[in-house]
User: Fold these one by one.
Assistant:
Number 1:
Amino acid sequence: MNKDKPFTSVSRPKILHFHESNGPVDEAIYGLMEKAGGIRQHKYIREMIIAALKAGQEDEDQADLRLMNTTLKEMRFTAKIFGPYREVKKVTVFGSARIMPDVAAYQAAVLLGKKLQEAGYMVITGGGPGIMQAVNEGAGARYSFGINIQLPFEQKTNHIVDGNPKSITYKYFFNRKVAFIKEAHAVVLFPGGFGTLDEAMEVLTLVQTGKRNLIPLILIDPPGSSYWKTWIDFLQQELMVQGYINPPDFNLFHLADNAQQAVDLINQFYKRFHSLVYAGKKLVIRMNSKISENKILKLNASFSDILVHGGKIISSGPLPEELDESGMDHLPRIIVDFDRLNFGRLRKMIDVINSDEFDTQ
């Protein structure tokens, strides 16, 4: 078949379903996967193929299909690049592309990259100049990811990540944003322009609404800067006063004035806390070390406001719903009947879990 020659006839569409009731179409899809070889997650690959076929049936707009096609390709490549480094914690750093090497913010970003690498983290930046280049410089190419964007101006790949196999250039901002946040175990923000503010609000919105599991979000004001302090004042004086946000929302981020303080805040977050996952209606918090029953009692008393009516916090082993995540069965857990409303208070509870507060028997 000539791949450059389009189909000239369109057969009557068959109604396709994501559940397996498509007869010969499903058989053909499984046959295709068998011929391709190496397919491990048959269920999801089958559904992706069904989605593509349904899109082809339903949408004649090439622009829509190009967007779907490019998005799938970009997300596939993202998973390929980050996949080998799943076990390494990564810190995404945002900030202005226009910062020059002779200013304090640039030097602070170089130092942050260096200290993150020394603490065992890899860094993710936009791969461009300014703060991005500074962080990549400090961490070094081996410990750096650069996820760039195609722009008609300003954004050229910096020399640290240029040609690096851990460098990706995206067509769409939204795919790039997914990579920035999905792969991060912490986010650090330096001062910047519209893009930096957009990224700050994006992460805050996701963690405030529970669409992204809680991670450290740190705002750095380098020497001589009051950028983030002024921004926080605005949040307090306008958004909070007007009732658009609540006081506990300020637990979702921390202000720092130097690189070491930022690294210390990230380390503290993972001191005992390991990860969290939802198992049905239960929130499972996995920990690197067990907490005492006395501390669990104190948590129940101090954070009863974030529990569903009649809910509680208890210690536990792994739940059956977690069995798809291997390598974590040994971790102690607490099960929280969380109301999924106040993530600022949940963030505060994680701070208490990590602290020595209530640790005495």
Note: The chain is about 40% helix and 15% strand.
Number 2:
Amino acid sequence: MDRTFEELIAEADAVDVSGWDFSWLDGRATEERPPWGYQRLLGERIGRAHLHLDIQTGGGEVLAGVEQRPSGATVATEGWAPNIAVAQRNLRDKGVVVVADEDEPPLPFADGTFDLVTSRHPVMAHWREIARVLAPGGTYFSQHIGPDSGHEVYEYFLGPKPTGKSLREPELARRDAEKYGLEVVDLREAELKMEFFDIGAMVYFLRKVIWFVPDFTVEKYREDLRRLDAQMRSEGPFVAYSRRFLIEARKAEV
């Protein structure tokens, strides 16, 4: 027997959403993976590095899943308080030092410290700081969230918004990287299908990925959720499209 609307939202509203592990959604929501395999490529670069910095590491889940380690050390930063303890727990046994940082310039490191700087889904890439902490010949390697990613979710709850003028355009990232002396050696884009199979999955997603509907609570959006639940039961999964781009940039040798 299908679970009721109230049962689904009560469960999703009570579950812990700290960290950046989405396994709770297994079987309830899906998102296509980019074709390039970020974690695999990340591991290859870490294995060749000496000093590695991972910016905005979240709960450290991606970094913890990489077997390779640099010859020197890895340091990770995170600014969201609920994630810091999760990252420390996930990365402690990996020998990674987690530094609490506000994700605003300046980064708490000396000029030219790291030969590899990485970040998966940074809220914002502070290119001046990335270039500053990179050693000559060093590399920045990251998977960014692309323009208008998942806007279908936003628009369902908050109404239409203009698209196509996002600050997350890949070519803007190229321009900003080059502005601070980095050479972009790889830039790839992908559009990826997302599907939500029940209303609990949407509630969990909105509680965890807070920038989609910044003021989201179950109580505030209960009637919108009730309408979406009815729509999903009659028409099938709610579909949206995420956008990602891979960028790799290098700092010139002295």
Note: Strands lie at 29-31, 51-54, 73-78, 97-100, 114-120, 134-145, 182-196, 238-251.
Number 3:
Amino acid sequence: MRRVVRCSPKPLFRKGFTPLASHSSFPQGGLSSYGWDEGLEQSFAPHRAAGLVPARIVRVDRGRCDVITETGPMRAGTSFAGGMEPDSAPCTGDWAALRPGRDPELVALLPRRGVVVRSSASRSSHGQVLAANVDTAAVVASLAVGLNLGRIERLLALAWESGATPVIVLTKADQSADPAAAVAEVGDSAPGVEVIATSATTGQGVEALAALLTGTVVLLGPSGAGKSTLGNALLGAEALETGVVRDVDGKGRHTTVHRQMVPLPGGGVLIDTPGLRAIGLLDADDGLRQVFAEIERLAEECRFSDCGHDTEPGCAVQAAIGSGELSGRRLDSYRKLQRENAWATSRGDARLARVDRQKAITRSLRELYAFRDRQKGR
């Protein structure tokens, strides 16, 4: 029997928070204000011919979902959530085909563009999609505590791998003795990425940040980094729930427990995500090459093409460390993330191989049974 999960009667926004004006005046902007374009319309043509309508998923909670359609927000069931791989299940930001009616139901997802995926927090071989169809990934770190450059590099690898444009946002600049020095320090570990210090309390950097954010924007960072507070500053409204942070270590409770999407007043949409305790990489080779672009460039100048950047003669990477051009910490971080990424990817490859083998066995058995049935029927 097909499994159909209906949406809960919970409202689109939490109690105590005011929906933004963009929702109440939705028909004026239609789905275009949520990113619908000609390319999506063309890919949706077969679904529209079948009587389905496009919808963008705003929030998912155990198969329950809130969506935006051409006529506005509604709740819908998901008929396919139970039988999908975790990394292909419906996620906030997905575009979907919806069967309208008394009980609206999502029946298919459109191909994704710009997907932020991490290795499952359960350490399984599956990936976990954090946000789909993302254009800009804002990596958020707090200046109220010491900078964790390794964590920022991990998040940047996820962002680059997704195909989105990363931006590093240093929050709580009003609590830092020297925000400019912090921006410079982070910039050294993020070649090619804009780094901006902000303060939701004073408004510092918020307007400049808003100018950098385009399309669908996702906020990525740990609990206590100030993602929801930053989101409210960008939205100009208390649309996202915020919580307190411990003074001793700057960590906060998981106030945001679901990924949720809200429209930005200047255009585009914002996806707020729960704080990330574990930031595991999965098949993020391209992302790592982007994050550590200077090491990749130096490696091309090494005497040996398979240089391990350790004690080999003519190693340009070690020469750069010796001259102060490159820090040893960067190389250590690069090696660590490469090992982790390779391990997680190999687990995924092994799982897919097992799935393929099981499918082949099942197919062979079906063919055998069909042959026997035909023999008996003679």
Note: Residues 150 and 333 are 7 Å apart (CA to CA).
